[in-house]
Amino acid sequence: MIPRRFLVVGALALTGCASLTPASAFPVAGPFPELEPVRLVRSGSEDVVIEIASRGCSARPDIAFHVERKGGVATVAFARRRMQTCSEDMVNWIEVAFTRAELGLAAGEPVFLLNPLAEPPGP
Description:
19% of the residues lie in helices and 32% in strands. With 123 residues, the chain is an alpha+beta fold.
């Protein structure tokens, strides 16, 4: 027999879940919410450059990448190794460059970026 307190706690937990709106229960974050939003991407013959948000303490070593090939196209994803812990309120944008050799990409090889796009650069 189930003790009464477990029954009450279970009922309260279900009531809390039922009171959530669908938007708060399942926030819209895109298909890969752990990926870093990118504002700008430039793919040249020598490197791939991304522009990401920074609060003053982000640097290139803080960004990890993953490359996967399928059907002759390289898919690249960038993510932070750790959360930003600096306290600067204003968000700036920094460019982070990776060489094609570092990413394991050949010169001129097509690249598909998985990261979500942030607001476009202003004038």
